[in-house]
């Protein structure tokens, strides 16, 4: 597949097509040409950059969907209270004159809180120079350039096709013990329960972080390969730049928009081997609370609402959740960014009432690294797209790795059980990172 792609980039036809699209356009206009690579499937992980070049990754292994974005033709970072509106306006400006053969996509990601500052931009929208896709058993490659310089696009994309060698030896990652931080988190749970008991909150989600260290830089490709194998029903995602790589395997969709129809997940409640029953009172109340808020949020944005029915069991690895879907045809002019701004954060990652929970977290200096519990997704030039909630994640900076997980605290929560829940969620990445066999088996 990669050899076929190299040949297609070098035969000159792509450059001619881009030049035709660019004719008469302003230099800043985007032009995109798509190459049909024929039937097949490829997870594209062999092409993941290893030297800090920007990339995006999105996969649903259970349905054979894989996307890799390499390079950046457009890259817009923002933050603050108007970050979604800023991205929406930027994207609308891009698509207004975008000359394209198909429906190329932009990737996007954002942090939980509008003021979060980490090694990733708070909110980011990027159009890759080269987009590789496998969907429905067929593969394509889309090259996007600026109309002012289309002639360099094919050569630049060819340079991005560098297959990475296997690692010489597996890295060993050790978990850094944090007993004080663990005790502090349990104390925060008690404080949350007092606020809930006083009627100030119905729910608040508290995040924990775990740190690991290796003797050498940690490569992203083998971690993603292990997640593809172990989490086929999750969305596997990643974004990398010169400072960090953020990756994970999430079970939760924030919202999707397709052909004018929006659909959001109401996901909450957690069970794992040895825990309480998933359909118990505490988990059912949590899921019902999330569904109520999602329903109320979507109602003014949609012409009507349809629900999937009673909450179903979603199993991802060793963990199970309760999930229902809520959606409907959107009102005229409602965009994916409008939906994201309205829905984020759901009570599944913030709490309820939303404003009160966010104030509670802010007053206690809740820290969430990278884009954990924010979102990551993609949007096509036609406006269709999907955003996943960035859960079960790792922020990799050289030989340091930070994992994060949270638990929803409601009346009746047991602090030790909530701590155990975060451990079960952290295990999604811990089991991958602390098992030497995956590094020898998958390579980079």
Number of helices: 11
What spatial form do the alpha-carbon principal axes imply?
Answer: globular
Number of strands: 23
Question: What is the CA-atom radius of gyration, in angstroms?
Answer: 22 Å
Residues in helices, as a percent range: 25-40%
What class do helices, strands and sheet pairing give?
alpha+beta
Overall mean pLDDT:
92
User: Which parts are unreliable, with pLDDT below 50 for 5 consecutive residues or more?
Assistant: 437-444
Features:
13-stranded mixed sheet, ten-stranded antiparallel sheet, 11 helices, globular, 23 strands, alpha+beta, 444 residues, disordered C terminus
Describe this structure in words.
By secondary structure, the protein is of the alpha+beta class. It is 30% helix and 33% strand. It has eleven helices and 23 strands. It has helices at 2-10, 13-22, 83-96, 153-160, 179-197, 220-230, 281-298, 336-343, 354-363, 415-433, 436-442, and strands spanning 30-39, 55-60, 65-70, 74-78, 99-100, 105-110, 123-127, 130-135, 138-146, 173-176, 203-214, 235-240, 245-250, 253-258, 261-271, 306-307, 312-316, 319-329, 351-352, 375-380, 385-389, 393-397, 400-410. The strands form two sheets. Strands 1, 2, 3, 5, 8, 9, 10, 11, 12, 13, 19, 22 and 23 form a 13-stranded mixed beta sheet that branches. Strands 4, 6, 7, 14, 15, 16, 17, 18, 20 and 21 form a ten-stranded antiparallel beta sheet that branches. Strand 2 (55-60) and strand 3 form a beta hairpin. It is globular.
């Amino acid at each position: 597949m990669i050899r076929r792609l190299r040949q297609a980039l070098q035969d000159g036809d792509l450059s001619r097509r881009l030049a035709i699209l660019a004719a008469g356009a302003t230099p800043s206009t985007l032009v995109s040409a798509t190459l049909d690579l024929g039937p097949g499937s490829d997870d594209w992980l062999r092409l993941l950059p290893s030297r800090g070049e920007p990339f995006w990754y999105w996969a649903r292994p259970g349905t054979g969907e894989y996307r890799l974005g390499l390079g950046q033709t457009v890259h817009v970072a923002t933050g603050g209270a108007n970050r979604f509106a800023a991205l929406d306006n930027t994207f609308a400006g891009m698509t207004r004159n975008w000359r394209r053969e198909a429906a190329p996509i932009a990737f996007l990601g954002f942090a939980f809180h509008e003021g979060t500052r980490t090694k990733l931009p708070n909110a980011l929208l990027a159009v890759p120079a080269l987009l590789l896709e496998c969907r429905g058993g067929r593969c394509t490659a889309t090259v996007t350039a600026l109309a002012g310089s289309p002639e360099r696009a094919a050569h630049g994309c060819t340079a991005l096709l560098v297959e990475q060698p296997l690692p010489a030896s597996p890295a060993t990652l050790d978990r850094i013990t944090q007993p004080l931080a663990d005790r502090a988190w349990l104390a925060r749970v008690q404080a949350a329960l007092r606020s809930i008991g006083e009627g100030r909150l119905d729910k608040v989600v508290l995040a924990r972080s775990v740190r690991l260290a290796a003797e050498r830089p940690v490569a992203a490709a083998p971690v993603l390969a292990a997640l593809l194998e172990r989490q086929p029903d999750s969305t596997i995602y990643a974004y990398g730049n010169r400072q960090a790589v953020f990756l994970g395997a999430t079970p939760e969709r924030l919202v999707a928009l397709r052909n004018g129809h929006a659909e959001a997940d109401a996901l909450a409640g957690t069970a794992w081997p040895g825990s309480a029953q998933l359909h118990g009172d505490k988990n059912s109340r949590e899921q019902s609370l999330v569904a109520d808020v999602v329903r109320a949020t979507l109602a003014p944005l949609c012409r009507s609402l349809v629900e999937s029915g009673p909450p179903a069991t979603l199993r991802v690895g060793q963990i199970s959740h309760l999930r229902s879907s809520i959606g409907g045809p959107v009102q005229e002019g409602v965009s994916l960014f409008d939906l994201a701004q309205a829905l984020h954060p759901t009570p599944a990652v913030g709490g309820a009432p939303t404003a009160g929970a966010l104030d509670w977290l802010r007053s206690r200096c809740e820290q969430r690294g990278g884009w954990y519990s924010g979102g990551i997704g993609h949007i096509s030039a036609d406006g269709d797209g999907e955003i996943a909630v960035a859960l079960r994640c790792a922020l990799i900076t050289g030989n340091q790795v930070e994992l994060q997980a949270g638990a929803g605290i409601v009346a009746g929560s047991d602090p030790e059980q909530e701590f155990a829940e975060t451990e079960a969620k952290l295990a999604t990445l811990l089991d991958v990172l602390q098992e030497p066999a995956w590094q020898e088996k998958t390579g980079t």
